[in-house]
Design brief:
The chain is of the alpha/beta class and about 325 residues long. The protein has two domains: about 140 residues, Aspartate/ornithine carbamoyltransferase (Rossmann fold), CATH 3.40.50; about 170 residues, Rossmann fold (3-Layer(aba) Sandwich). It is built from eleven helices and eleven strands. The strands form three sheets. Strands 9-8-7-10-11 form a five-stranded parallel sheet, with helices on one face. Strands 2-1-3-4 form a four-stranded parallel sheet. Strand 3, helix 4 and strand 4 form a beta-alpha-beta unit. Helix 1 packs across helix 11 and helix 5 crosses helix 11. The longest helix has 20 residues.
Length: about 325
Amino acid sequence: MTSPSPLWTGKHVLSCDQFDEAMLHVLFETASAMKAMVATKRKSAILTGRVLANIFYEPSTRTMCSFDAAMKRLGGDVISVSESSSSAKKGETIEDTVRCLECYCDILVLRHPVKGTAAQAASAMKKPLINAGDGVGEHPTQALLDLFTVVSAHPRAKSTAEGLQLDSLTLTLLGDLKHGRTVHSIARLVTKLSRPPTLHLVSPALLSMPAEICDELSKANVPMQASDDFAAALPAADVLYVTRVQKERFATEAEYAAVAGSYVVNAAALAAGPAKPDMLIMHPLPRVDEISTDVDADPRATYFIEMENGMYVRMALLALVLGADLSAL
């Protein structure tokens, strides 16, 4: 592999709207190369001398740590900022924060509780910014690693130079589709595919997918249906993508209690479905009670593989956006 790729170099990563199939193919090929490199050499030096700023105004385990590990696996360094440790406590604007931090680093990763803040911050910057989640907006790097996981793990999914071939699959999104930025990004990413999967949107009525995203799916001719019946949807699912009900997005405890625990994926439910033997069970994590721990030993449980893939995809993003020489891997 060689680099830089003009498709990625120097670009902000803000929304799944900005991707096309050529970009996805380059990214997934690079992520596969990163996975092979880690398995054999553990580390590379292709980003030596580069610095990443991790700016997280919301709690994070997987996204923050995987970006940190990704940069260090490639020889770079990381500085970390949280809301409690930044001058946001003193009233500093997000624009001033990122303009100061880009003086010290080469690329920024930002998580913020307010939708649209990543784009707002990027508009003030000269260096690239990666959106690590903006409130109920999007989480594009999660969608990228999720799609990479499907392509890597499902026997009927393929990634070729001509595009991703997912049209033989049914992707069932289950749970909080209203507040879940991961499912918003997955839906938007699917609209970029010439051969998309069929989407089955399963949620309580109060947590249904936002209308504007359903409109985007319709305009892109993505096959889809919506229901609130998990048991009826399960037998057709090739990928079951489960999300937690996001308590932190509700105005009152009563509103949350009305929909909490709406669906539980456990061994009994999978057997009763019955779920397909090659179905992938995915979850962006953290989970609360929507996937029972008795599913963890099921060979279809893919969520921890998904988390590992997150590091490889983020390694690929950092290398591509920073224009690293991939021939040196």
